[in-house]
Design a protein that fits this description.
Blueprint lengths: L1 H9 L30 E9 L13 E6 L2 E7 L6 E5 L5 E5 L13 E8 L2 E6 L2 E5 L5 E6 L7 E4 L8 E3 L4 E8 L7 H5 L3 E5 L5 E3 L6 H5 L9 E4 L3 E6 L2 E8 L5 E4 L21 H10 L2 E8 L4 E7 L20 E5 L5 E6 L3 E10 L2 E7 L7 E9 L1
Antiparallel strand pairs: 1-25, 2-3, 3-4, 4-5, 6-7, 7-8, 8-9, 10-12, 11-12, 12-13, 13-14, 15-16, 16-17, 17-18, 19-20, 20-21, 21-22, 23-24, 24-25
């Protein structure tokens, strides 16, 4: 039934209704108090190495992890190729490999910005100007255009941390939204909504009541302007690098809430840049490398907890007098209960690439960096809370 409805309506779908988006929001300017949980946490770590590391490479925009029929699968578009490959995580068995002869992502339609697996019959792949719906056999069910350029707003996944999501109950796709005609050093960029829903039945695009926090409208943070988005069975969860707050929108009740998410390891406020530094790539990179950073919230549907990474600010130079860089960062794993109360924080001892993180029944997978051991490394955090 799902596929039938998608095919029926997306053939005429075109996003001219983005003009409905208004520049207002419920996001406040205050730092919300972080509530503490009385629950206790224990954990153990298991090391995992991907057996297919030499056959597939992908960016944060080009993969999804899904749980289907009692198993966890990683589905990815191979970097630089129009191939879609699926692996079962526990056995590392390749379950499908759709060749480029069946797929086409023309460069003139933009990069592949997002891969979302609703089920093996419904895999969404979003480019800058087109969404493709296909199954795991490579059969294309539907394709429809987005972002025709007539609106100043665009739907996408600009930084790779807010993939598309389909909710069968609302019959809608959910996207990151951004003002592509607004310079990113201007206040107008940060007063725009950051998320929209696209109803595949009515063709209506609806702006959701979340924009950047007011601090982004008052200050300039250069490259630290990511929008992080996570979806649960009913919630859209938004976070931003320069604020600890967690912003939650319920898709069914349309209620909006803010929660505190500050780490005890944050010892200083994020420092800002001057808007006159908008063209100074060196200053913006150094700011992103050294400033206090909060990351995306990850939902664990198997245990009903939330995880989030935090990275304390770095000094300009280390103890040896060398300039610090992003790879010098420490990361803190924060664990919240289902009411967004902070249970505990774990200081990670090794180097991690926290942008590659996902949950399965086995635990929380976090990409681990160790040049001696090679690529494709993960640590599985098996967290027990009582």
């Amino acid at each position: 039934m799902f596929i039938k409805e998608i095919v029926l309506f997306t053939t005429v779908l075109f996003l001219q209704s983005c003009s409905l988006i208004m520049d207002n929001s419920q996001v406040s300017d205050k730092e919300i108090e972080t509530l503490k949980s009385e629950k206790k946490l224990t954990y153990k770590k298991v090391f995992y190495k991907k057996g297919w590391k030499d056959s597939i490479q992908y960016t944060t925009k080009e993969y999804d992890v899904t749980y289907q029929n009692g198993n966890s699968y990683l589905i990815a578009k191979n970097k630089g190729e129009d191939r879609l490959i699926g692996y079962e995580l526990s056995t590392q068995e390749k379950i499908f490999d759709i060749p480029s002869s069946k797929l086409s992502f023309p460069i003139e339609l933009g990069e592949v910005a997002s891969v979302y697996v609703h089920n093996f019959d419904s895999i969404f792949i979003a480019q800058t100007r087109r969404v493709t719906l296909l199954d795991s056999l490579g059969n294309i069910k539907s394709q429809f255009g987005i972002n025709d350029g007539r609106s100043k707003y665009a739907l996408g996944n600009l930084h790779g941390e807010m993939p598309i999501f389909y909710d069968a109950k609302t019959e809608s796709l959910y996207f990151q939204t951004y003002c592509w005609k607004c310079p990113q050093h201007k206040t107008s960029y940060y007063t725009s909504h950051v998320s929209s829903s696209l109803n595949l039945k009515t063709k209506e695009v609806q702006a959701l009541p979340v924009s950047y926090p007011i601090s982004y409208q008052k200050n300039y943070y250069g490259y630290a302007n990511h929008v992080y988005g996570t979806y649960t069975d009913s919630l859209n969860i938004y976070t931003f690098p320069m604020t600890p707050n967690i912003y939650v929108y319920n898709r069914y009740t349309e209620n909006y809430q803010e929660f505190g998410g500050k780490s005890q390891h944050q010892k200083q406020s994020p420092y800002t840049l001057s808007r006159q530094q908008k063209d100074d790539d060196k200053a913006k990179i150094e700011h992103f490398n050294r400033a206090t950073l909060y990351y995306k919230v990850h939902y664990d549907p198997f245990r009903n907890y939330y995880y989030r990474f935090f990275s304390p600010a770095l000094p300009e130079k280390n103890e040896k007098g060398l300039f610090t860089k992003y790879s010098d960062r420490e990361h803190i794993l924060m664990i919240f209960d289902k009411q967004f109360k902070l249970i505990d924080e774990i200081k990670l001892e090794e180097k991690y690439q926290v942008f590659f993180t996902f949950c399965t029944p086995e635990g929380l997978y976090v990409s681990r960096i160790n040049e001696k051991e090679g690529k494709g490394l993960y640590t599985i955090f098996k967290i027990n809370i009582q």
